[in-house]
Amino acid sequence: MDAFNYSFFLKVFAGLFAVANPLGIVPMFLSLTDGDSISEKSRTARVAAIAVFISLLISAWFGNNILLWFGVSVAAFRTGGGLLILLMAINMLHAKRSRVKQTPEELEDARDKDDVAVVPLAIPIIAGPGAISLVISYAQESQNILDKMILTGNIAILAISIWLAFASANIIGNRFGLTRLNIITRIMGLILTAIGVQMISDGLRELFPILTMGL
After folding, report:
1. Which residue has better confidence, 159 or 96?
2. What are the b/e assignments for 63-78, b being 16+ CB within 10 Å?
3. Number of Cβ atoms within 10 Å of the Cβ of 107
4. Angle at 29 between CA 26 and CA 32, to 5 degrees
């Protein structure tokens, strides 16, 4: 039986929480659910968490097959995903919402919708291109079924954390305030910067093996 890969668990855990940033999303959740009753906000939190779990789970288990269907190599995807994550990280370091996830026009349109749990809250704000790219990259790194289960478990932990953060959004918003939430976002952005650079580096080494000659 394969041994539990603690380093892979911690790597996936840190990466997923950095790219999703549940606490940093709280102000947007409060904005999109402004005027909703407590029960409506609870339902939105629950549905959003379930939608994030399902979308990232599909990416983890079937992402590689989707890449093969489109004829995209693992190296090319890892490089492109790294660039995407790096762009998101730069915005997070400035405490700004990345346009990779959602444009201001899309956010304004979302405020007029009755149900924002799945679109745009879960997709693409949380489970957007960056999160999906990261999950598929981790799936490609999985060496056995236990690693895949570790990835699945981390996705479940992330979904539960999102649900708890949204369910406690009013309390978090009042206690932390925008300044402290922005500090958390910047810390997550710093972690995400390192992840993006590492993905780009790994992808380029696979695309151009000559870069590793002499090392």
Report:
1. 159
2. bbeebeeeeeebbebb
3. 16
4. 155
pLDDT in tens, 24-73: 999 989 988 888 889 999 999 999 999 999 999 999 999 988 888 888 88
| pLDDT tens per residue across span 83-118 | 989 988 888 888 776 655 556 665 556 554 557 899
Cβ neighbours for 100, distance < 8 A, ≥ 6 positions apart: 84, 87, 88, 91, 128, 129, 130
Whose CA is closest to 180, among 74, 26, 70, 51? 26
**Closest residue by Cα to residue 81 from 127, 129, 125:** 129
Tokens standing for residue 27: 């102000």
Kindly state the DSSP code that residue 123 receives in the 8-state scheme: I
Tokens 């910047």 appear where?
Answer: 186
- Contact (CB, 8 A) for 92 and 185: yes
Question: Cα(first)–Cα(last) distance of the chain, in Å?
Answer: 34
The three-state secondary structure class of 167 is helix
pTM listed for this prediction: 0.86
Residue carrying the six token digits 């940093």: 24
* Tokens (6 digits) for 190: 């710093």
How many whole angstroms separate alpha carbon 114 and alpha carbon 95?
Answer: 28
Q: Which tokens is 126 given?
A: 């949380």
